[in-house]
Design a protein that fits this description.
alpha+beta; 4-stranded mixed beta sheet; 9 helices; 64% helix
């Protein structure tokens, strides 16, 4: 029996229809652009309502609330599209974006090599850099002032003068993009800075060791960030720093539990697909090597799927981590492709 036909493939836990569980794991489809489906996490909806109702703190107008929420959503969305377009540019895939208050999540799958992965990760911050440069220059030309503190929302120096006040839009776009850029570049998983650090170390130390080093560096930076945040009274940043610490710690534990052997073949050898007609013997060896690696990858994928489905059977679909859900989704797509190829071959017969 194939894994997708097993009775516990789909979550049959009664909590799947629970509204409280939906707030934790649910999402709303928004639109599709450039072949990329955009969804909003349930917590994003709740966050938007809370900000619009209760505001950002004393002294903020309701116009500031509307502009802040709208521009935050737009900038995070552009950031995630940057990841998606970068992944496609290097030959990978990107079909989904999930929006939530702590940022977006682009389901991008670049080729498993250091440079394509780095370009994909850097595509998001590159969008923020471009936004900050354009809006920062215009703000400086209009008022001679640009906010430099990335970790605190500075109130605009000008009062609200109507919904067509271009200066306030430029201010909010710059301020939010600048804050997201600096926060995202912290070398802490799952932020872009942590992933970029790992891809930089990957060619020299290998995937497994670079992941371990990045997790350790992320935990150290998270602790330092939490201490600085508490010293300056930034409770929200302290909570985010501790969340990053726990994420890095759990990721490190998972890496140690699995061991380096499971990551020996994580690099994508698709560069070997090209066949040089002037060297047929060498090309033949490449084919044999590629076939052997694909066979090992298929075995490893089946083992991972069996472990994930056993976890689903015991604890339900909501117990899966993001990486496990992504593995399950990719396996589903691979199985569908194999089914299509099998049906096509039968028609040919």
């Amino acid at each position: 029996m194939a894994w997708q036909d097993r009775p516990y493939y789909r979550d049959r836990n009664p909590s799947a229809g629970n509204p409280l569980m939906w707030l934790l794991t649910g999402s709303l489809p928004l639109f599709t652009a450039f072949g990329i489906r955009v969804r909003a996490h349930a917590s994003m909806v709740v966050y938007t309502i809370l900000v619009l109702v209760f505001g950002l703190g004393p002294g903020w107008t309701w116009q500031d609330r509307v502009q802040n929420v709208s521009i935050l959503f737009l900038i995070v969305l552009l950031h995630e599209f940057g990841h998606c377009f970068a992944a496609r540019w290097v030959g990978g895939e990107a079909n989904d974006i999930l929006m939530h208050p702590l940022g977006g999540l682009a389901m991008a799958s670049p080729p498993r090599r250091p440079l394509p992965t780095f370009i994909t990760v850097a595509g998001g911050p590159a969008v923020n850099v471009l936004i900050c440069l354009i809006c920062g220059v215009i703000l400086w030309m209009l008022s001679g002032w640009v906010p430099w503190n990335p970790f605190g929302l500075t109130k605009p120096i000008r009062n609200f003068e109507g919904w067509l006040d271009v200066w306030r839009y430029l201010y909010w776009i710059y301020q939010i993009s600048w804050s997201l850029l600096c926060f995202n570049l912290l070398p802490i998983f799952p932020l872009d800075g942590g992933q970029m650090l790992q891809t930089i170390l990957w060619p020299r130390f290998g995937y497994y060791k670079s992941m371990l080093f990045s997790c350790n560096a992320g935990m150290v930076c998270a602790v330092l960030g939490a201490m600085i945040a508490l010293a300056t009274g930034s409770i929200g940043l302290a909570i985010l720093a501790m969340f990053g610490f726990m994420y890095c710690l759990q990721l490190k534990r998972n890496l140690i539990a699995v061991g380096p052997e499971e990551y020996a073949d994580t690099i994508d050898y698709s560069a070997a697909y090209e066949i040089n007609p002037t060297k047929p013997r060498r090309a033949s060896k490449r084919k044999v090597k590629r076939a052997a690696k694909l066979a090992r990858e298929a075995v490893n994928e089946q083992r991972a799927i069996d472990a994930i489905l056993a976890k689903v059977s015991a604890h339900g679909m909501q117990s899966l981590s993001w990486s496990e859900k992504r593995t399950l989704k990719k396996a589903t797509e691979h199985q569908r492709q194999r089914d299509v190829e099998l049906r096509s071959s039968r028609r040919g017969l």
